[in-house]
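Re: [ENG-882] Designed sequences occasionally contain unexpected residues at chain ends

Forwarding the minimal case from QA. C-alpha cells:
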C-alpha cells in the first residue's frame, strides 16, 4: 500500500516570497522523485514544475478556483494527483487470502 505524501513533511530546498514584480517560489525535494517548484505568479495563481535535464517543466497550473490559496495547498494537490488511488476491491481480496 502506498503511503500518501504530505507537503508539510517535505524538505524545502529554497523559498522566496512573492514581490510586486517577482514571482514567489518554493522548491521541494520529493524523495525518489526529484525537485518540484511551486511558483506563485500572481496572488492566487500558481504553477507546479519539475526539474528535468532541459530545465523546469510546468506540470499543472492552479488557482483559487481549485481550492488552492497557499503554496503548501498547491503542492498537496499535486501530491494527491500523483498518489495512486487505493483499489479497495484488490485490498479486500488480498485480505481474504490470509
Amino acid at each position: 500500500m502506498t503511503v500518501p505524501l504530505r507537503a508539510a513533511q517535505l524538505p524545502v530546498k529554497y523559498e522566496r516570497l512573492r514581490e510586486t514584480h517577482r514571482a514567489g517560489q518554493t522548491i521541494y525535494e520529493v524523495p525518489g522523485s526529484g525537485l518540484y517548484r511551486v511558483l506563485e505568479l500572481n496572488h492566487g495563481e500558481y504553477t507546479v514544475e519539475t526539474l528535468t535535464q532541459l530545465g523546469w517543466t510546468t506540470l499543472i497550473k492552479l488557482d483559487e478556483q481549485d481550492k488552492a490559496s497557499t503554496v503548501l495547498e498547491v503542492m498537496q494537490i499535486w501530491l494527491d494527483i500523483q498518489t495512486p488511488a487505493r483499489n479497495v476491491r484488490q485490498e479486500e481480496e488480498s485480505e481474504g487470502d490470509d
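QA comment: On inspection the terminal residues look reasonable. The first helix runs from residue 71 to 82. Proposing we downgrade this to a documentation issue.
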